Amino acid sequence: MRLKLWGVRGSIPVPGPGCDAYGGNTSCVQVTAGDGTELILDAGTGIRQLGPELVSRCANLHILLTHLHLDHIQGLMFFAPFFNPATEITVWGPPAAGQKLRSRLARYISTPLSPIEIRELPAKVTFRDLIFDPRLGGGIRDDNNLKVIIPGGASSPWIGPEHLDVSLSNEAIAGIGSMAGSGSVIPMDHTTCMVRAAWRIVRFFHRESCGQCTPCREGGGWLEKVLERIEAGRGREADLDLLMDICDNISPGVAWPPAQTTICVLGPSMPPSVAAGLRMFRDEYLAHIRDGRCPFPPDRLPRRLARV
Ligand code: SF4
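# iron/sulfur cluster complex -> structure
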């Protein structure tokens, strides 16, 4: 193990000849383990000089913040590896009730104190990490196959497993035609019926509609009824065009970001799940119609919850 001191001062940096012996930077200690693992203790101004040394040779770094006083974190936004998308950095820090470490650091790395926001740092966490990493999602239930992901709440357009390696940033998700939205990622596996999933989402939004706008109030109800009859095996092929026509009346063009004919965005929250389902799983919709029944097993949820 090798230790190198990049900053030892408290409070504020103190440059000048009087500090030649130990340097004038605030706290930062580099610990290099025998296997090459790099651990950085505290991110005072000393971390700025350490950055160039690690930026091109280290793909994996750990930063341990002993506490969050300014002299222990003020170098973070000047640490070059944060701006290298190929570097994976894990920041560890003291816990605080009710507040994540990221939120507490964001109070410092944000305007007007900082020229950059914490969310602008290239994110390395992907949907694959979030869903399959044992420390995060822990994988798909029963080791089933991933079928589809709702990336940012029920109103966001669905994406397929081919996007597992997309990073969890607003920009990256917008780049594949969806949104990070509320940040509530919902993976669905191969045992999930896509008609039932869309029906349940539409049903939720229709229940939430305040009824002021006709496209939302009426369109939501029509979508719900048509999806329900397809799911029950009473659908007809023309229903697929009818669904898209209703979606188009709620959100003209059924594009992303959605156009709006309504007062608020609740109305346009309904078409994405229907349109994505029809685009990605048209054969599944047709199987319901052709076979006159849903080809999937009943919900595992108690009936009371499954109907919500
Ligand atoms: S779009 Fe908004 S304002 Fe219009 S009916 Fe729906 S919930 Fe009400």
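# post-check
The chain has a mean pLDDT of 90.
The two ends are 57 Å apart (CA to CA).
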